[in-house]
Design goal:
- The protein has helices at about 15-25, 45-55, 70-80, 90-100, 115-130, 155-165, 200-210, 225-240, 255-275, and strands at about 1-10, 30-40, 60-65, 85, 145-150, 170-175, 190-195, 245.
- By secondary structure, the chain is an alpha/beta fold.
- It has 2 domains: about 1-110, Rossmann fold; about 115-275, Rossmann fold, CATH 3.40.50.
- The strands form 2 sheets. It has a 4-stranded parallel sheet, covered by helices on one side. Strands 6-5-7-8 form a 4-stranded parallel sheet, with helices on both faces.
- Helix 3 links the parallel strand 3 (about 60-65) and strand 4 (about 85).
- The N and C termini lie far apart (about 65 Å).
């Protein structure tokens, strides 16, 4: 295992930089990076004051700086001290400007402005939390996406992820040997997706869940045959409504959400096309 210092320098919150660094480092499992965060660098003078900090713990410097004066100070110091550096945004902004025929305004933190998109995400999150696990079923008509599935099919975390993308997302549990809630009969043309999981995976996840709750009793909740029947019932209910289904086995939350959004885009496109053809 190789240890390195990684300095993350940003003129805003540094969230973008942190996500890029995390994704990149995942490709180098033998590297142990000690991260040092330097957000909200607003002036060249502020940048100059940080140079001694880098000198105390030399390593790789990654940065997202849109102000040219601040970037110039950092790059000059890196070249003087022979510190390796990586500009995460410079190449992207330069190429975008080239293809768009425009010059960037070089203003940091614009993605964090309190604009309409921000408030849309807040509204979506509030809606999603209120409509989790079959709560407030009368509000399903206001959803952008409705997820249905049996227990332990990652409905809630997937809903939270989608809400953070601005999607009002409700989820409704499929309960063994019970019909779907009648409110699902009155949602018009709302977009609904069914989530299923493999029997083996469900057995494992549910047993782990009971262990975490210190429950040792044997119940149908973790019985393999009962779970198999539960999955089959869920598949019949979902296919009977003509809803698309996603098998989440071995899928991350991000992958499941991505698959849902791909289906939603197609659903919306088909609906718009049908409306034009009328």
């Amino acid at each position: 295992m190789k240890n390195i210092h990684l300095h993350l320098v940003s003129d805003a919150t540094g969230d973008t930089l942190e996500q890029v660094a995390k994704a990149a480092l995942a490709q180098f499992p033998e590297i142990n990076a000690q991260k040092h965060y330097w957000p909200m660098i607003r002036t060249a003078r502020h940048m100059e004051r940080l140079i001694p900090e880098f000198d105390e713990r030399p390593g790789i410097i990654m940065f997202t700086l849109v102000n040219q004066d601040i970037e110039d100070v950092l790059i000059a110091a890196c070249e003087k001290h022979s510190w390796p550096y990586i500009s995460v945004l410079h190449g992207i902004i330069r190429e975008l400007g080239h293809h768009l025929g425009q010059k960037s305004i070089a203003r940091p933190g614009l993605q964090h402005q309190l604009n309409d998109e921000y408030f849309k995400r807040i509204d979506a999150m509030q809606y999603t939390l209120m409509h989790d696990d079959g709560q407030c079923l009368d509000g399903l008509k206001d959803a952008d996406i409705i997820l249905v599935g049996i227990s332990r099919t990652s409905k809630t975390p997937t809903c939270i992820y989608l809400a953070n993308k601005g999607m009002k997302t409700a989820n409704v549990p499929i309960i063994p040997n019970q019909p779907l809630p009648r409110e699902l009969d009155n949602i018009g043309d709302k977009f609904v997706v069914g989530l299923i999981n493999s029997v083996d995976r469900l057995v494992h996840v549910r047993r782990s869940r009971l262990l975490s709750l210190k429950e040792n009793k044997t119940t149908t909740y973790v019985d393999e045959q009962a779970i198999k029947e539960e999955v089959q019932q869920a598949q019949r209910l979902i296919s009977g409504r003509g809803w698309p289904v996603i098998n989440i086995t071995r899928k991350s939350i991000e992958e499941t959400a991505g698959a849902i959004m791909k289906l939603k885009y197609k659903y919306d496109d088909d609906k718009e096309k049908a409306a034009r053809d009328q």
